[in-house]
Design a protein that fits this description.
The chain is mainly α and 72 residues long. Helices cover 50% and strands 0% of the residues. The protein contains two helices and no strands. The longest helix has 23 residues, at 20-42.
Length: 72
């Protein structure tokens, strides 16, 4: 009672490139998001503060030092 098993046939997958129109909105979104994060980490205090108080400063304090921004 020998069983014959067929060897699986290799399938080739064709990768289709993404059109640039599909990538640009995401690239712009993440670029703006990174600029906002850079602002809050690097410049959100003093005269340029959008949020009053020290709350944002305390939340991003260690990130400022890690990235080399002076804060005091």
């Amino acid at each position: 009672m020998a069983q014959s098993t067929a060897a699986p046939t290799p399938t080739t997958q064709i990768l289709t490139p993404l059109p640039l129109r599909a990538i640009v909105p995401w690239a712009v979104f993440f670029g703006v998001l990174m600029l906002v994060l850079l602002y809050f980490v690097g410049a959100e205090q003093g005269a340029t503060a959008v949020v009053s108080g020290e709350g944002v400063h305390e939340w991003v304090h260690d990130a400022r030092h890690l990235l080399g921004f002076p804060c005091h």
